[in-house]
Structure formats: structure tokens, C-alpha cells
Amino acid sequence: MKPIYYLLLLVLIGCKKELTLQDQIIGRWELRTRFGGFGTTTSYPAGNGNIIEFTNTTYLRYNNGQLNESSSYTLADTIWHGRKGGVVHYGTSIIPSFVIINNSILSIDVMSVDAGGDEYQKLR
Fold it and tell me: Where are the beta strands (DSSP E) in 10-123?
């Protein structure tokens, strides 16, 4: 009977819950790169104060360390241009954004023609 308990314990320990996009997006993210819709790219150093923070239901956007915008948001899984990620709707904005998280980098692309996007580094 003991081997069955050990096997069950091993299976339970070995199972990891896969984090959803909603789980992964929660936290503070600092802007590192901004891509313009017509090909311009701007890089930002660490400590620049351009931060977006997500909780379960709210986002806050800081520019140069000052709170600039806050509202509710919704996030849903989607596929856009062949990439699996999520679609974010911010507050009352009618233009959604496509998000992907890869290795502590949050990519946010405005879902509009030539709108550009941002990449953020996870802070916490």
C-alpha cells in the first residue's frame, strides 16, 4: 500500500499549475521599447518611470513616475496575425490591444493599422 501513496505523492508534487495570461500580467511593468507605426523605435533605460501596473481588474499607467491614467480592463485569450496571446480592452477605449508575455517581457500592440506597440520589462 505504501508504494501507491508514494506514487500519488510524486504525481501531486510533479503537477504544476500552468499560469494563465491573466495570472502572468498582474504586476508592475516598465517600458523598455516603443515601436512606432511607421518604423521608428525608441529604447528606454531601466528606471525611466514609464510603468504600467495590472491588478486583477484595474490598470494604472505612470509617465515619468506620475500617475497618468487608471481604469478597469478586461483580458481574453485570442490569436492575432497567427500569434497566440490576449486582447486587452482598457476602460472605455474602443481600440483594443494585443498582448503577449514571454520571458518577463510584456509586448502590447495596438490592434489598429500602423499603430505601433510597446515592450515592458516585469518589475515585480
Answer: 27-35, 41-43, 51-54, 58-63, 66-80, 83-90, 97-102, 105-110, 117-122
Residue 42: give its domain's CATH number: 2.40.128
Q: Which domain holds residue 33?
A: 18-122
- Reduce the DSSP state of residue 2 to 3 states and report it: helix
pTM of the model: 0.80
Q: Which of 42, 24, 23 is nearest to 33 (CA)?
A: 42
> What total number of domains does the chain contain?
1
- The SS3 assignment for 64 reads coil
Cα gap 21→75, rounded to integer Å: 8
In a domain, 111, yes or no: yes
Question: Mind listing the pLDDT tens digit for each residue in 12-31?
Answer: 555 667 889 999 999 999 99
Rounded-to-integer distance, Cα 22 and Cα 53, Å:
13
